[in-house]
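Replying to the earlier thread about multi-chain prediction with a worked example.

Input:
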Amino acid sequence: MTKKVQKNKPIGVFDSGLGGLTVVFNLQKSFPEKEIIYFGDTARLPYGNKSPETIQNYARQNTRFLLSFQPEMVVVACHTASALALGKLKTEFSLPIVGVLAPAVKAALAKTRNGRIGIIGTSATVKSNSYPAEIKKANPKIKVYGLACPLFVPLVEEGLFSGPLTNMVVAHYLKSLKEKKIDTLILGCTHYPMLKAVIAGFMGPKVTLVDPSEEVMPEIAAQLKERGQKAGAVSKGGLRIYLSDITPNFRKVATSFLKKELPRLGKANVENL
Amino acid sequence: MTKKVQKNKPIGVFDSGLGGLTVVFNLQKSFPEKEIIYFGDTARLPYGNKSPETIQNYARQNTRFLLSFQPEMVVVACHTASALALGKLKTEFSLPIVGVLAPAVKAALAKTRNGRIGIIGTSATVKSNSYPAEIKKANPKIKVYGLACPLFVPLVEEGLFSGPLTNMVVAHYLKSLKEKKIDTLILGCTHYPMLKAVIAGFMGPKVTLVDPSEEVMPEIAAQLKERGQKAGAVSKGGLRIYLSDITPNFRKVATSFLKKELPRLGKANVENL
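Result:
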C-alpha cells in the first residue's frame, strides 16, 4: 500500500510562554510529519494571575496570529487559557481548537481508584473552578481539591528542577493536598511536569500524576483522523517558533522544555490583532 | 507668613505592577498636599525578564498615559524601567522624569565604608549593568556585586514576607553575596523592601540596606523646589490608581505595599499609546 501525501497544513500551538513546548515535544514524537507553528506570548506572561477578560483577549489575539498560517487546528497549550478562554475561542473561530483541560480530566477520571483527585495550577486556573466543574459534570461523586502553587513557575524558569529549595517549596504547597488523601494529581500548568520527580517523591507512590501535555495527544490524533490525516507519516515536519518578546533567558528555558536545540525563531507583535 | 496656594499639578508615578506603591507611601508622607496619579502595568508585568526594547516601549506608553493628567513630573518607580528606559524617556519627553537608580547609588556611595556594594534586583536590572556603571562613574575604585533574585517577587506577591521558606530562598540567593564581604546592599526592586527584615537578618548587622523608595524622596523634593513648590502644605492631595489589568489579588498585594486601604481605582489601556 502506498501512503497518500496529504496537504500538510500546520498545527498551531500557543502558550503564555515557553512551557507549551512540552506539548510540542510530544506532538513531534506522535506526529513527526506535521509542521508546527508555536506562539509564546512572552511579552505578556504570566497569564496565571491576570483577569479572565484579559486572558480571553490575549487568547483571541494569539489565535488570530496563528490563523495567518492557515493551520489545521489550534492547540491551547496554556492551562490558564484553556480554563478561561477555550469556550469563547470555540464560538468565535471555526477551525478545531483543542485545550489541555478536557483530556487531563478524562485521564484523571480513568486513573482514580478512591475518587479523590487533586489539581494544581496557577491562581487563575484554580479560581476559574474549570477543572472541578468538568470533573463533576462527568461524575458528581468525585472529590476535587484545587490548589494554586504560584512559586512553581518561577522555580522552573530558574532551572531549579530539584534540590533542597525545590523540595521545600513543593512541600510548602502540597502538604495540604497530601492530607486530603488524593490518589490522582493533575499537573495543571505547563511548567509543573518539570517538577514531576520532586512532586512524585513528596506525594508518594500511591498518587498517580496526570501530565496533560501527554494526555492531550489522543484528542489531537482524533481531530486529525476526523479530518482525514493520520499519524506516523515518513516526511518530517518543521517547527517554527514565534515569541511576542525575545526574552534574555528564553533559550535556556525553551531548550529545557523542548529537550533539544531551538529551531528558527521569529518575533511577533499580536497586540493589535 | 502666609503660604501661597500653588496650582497643584499632580505627580505621576508608574511601575510594572503594584510594588511602586511603596514610593507612593513615602511620597504621601513627604508631600501630603500633592495629588498622585499612579499607573501599574499589571497586564504586562513582570518587566524583569523582558528585553530592553520591550521595556523601553512599555515605559514610553506608560509615560504617555500619565501625561494625559498633565503632571508636574513623572517618577519611574520600577527599577527595571529606571535602569533600561530612563535615558530614553528623558530625551523623548520634556517634563522632569525621576528614576530610582541615581538616588539609590548616591545613598549607597555615602554609606559604604569598605567600598564593597551589592545590588540585588531582577534579571533585566542586573544584566543592564546600570547600577555598577553609575557607581563606577562616581568612584571607579568601588567594587560592585550584582545579583538577580527572581524568586523574591513571587514570594512577596504570595505574602510570604517571613518564615522558613522565605529564609531559605533569601539564603539561597544571598549566600554568594555575603561571601563578597559587602557592607552596603541596594534593594534594587520595588518588592524587595518587603523582605527587608529577613534580608537584614541573613546579611547581619554590618551590612547597611539601601531602600531606593526612600532615597528617591530628596530628588523629588529638589525637583519640586526648583519648580517653585515646597513640601508640607496643609491641603491634602488625593491618590488615583490606574491599572492595565484589574488582577484578582491586586487588593491584597496593593494594601501590603501602600499600608492602607486603596483609593479609587481605574482600568487603563495603554497598549496603543
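Strands of chain A lie at 11-15, 36-40, 73-76, 97-99, 116-121, 143-148, 184-188, 208-210, 239-243, 265-267.

Feel free to reuse this layout for your own posts.
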